[in-house]
Amino acid sequence: MAELLLNLRGVPDDEADEIRALLAAHEIAFYETPPSRFGVSAGGIWVRDRGQAAAAGRLLAEYHARRQAAAQAEYRAAREAGAARTLWTSIRDDPLRALAAMLGIAFVVAFVIAILALPFVLLAR
Length: 125
Known about the structure:
Blueprint: E1 3-7, H1 13-25, E2 30-33, E3 44-47, H2 50-81, H3 87-93, H4 95-124
Antiparallel strand pairs: 1-3, 2-3
């Protein structure tokens, strides 16, 4: 019986392609389910043989560890070069978006406070 190896929700295309290539290189039989039409399911990569699922899981864990280490090294290099994206650079690059986000947050906080205070205001009458 098949076993789900990877849910494809939020997985970038390059990562999914690399995982497919990794499974094919290690001759692990797999298949994919497509995403549903209405977004209920994002699709997935399934290992056909449950006996190979443990090996596929180890390969996937090793792959993710390598990918994480590479991303962290890339970020450290960008930070040392002064090219890493920070909150200040995000605000400086797109001030209207930052202002809209702050106004949205303020609106939600004010709305929640108003809803929480409503019973006390109504009881005080």
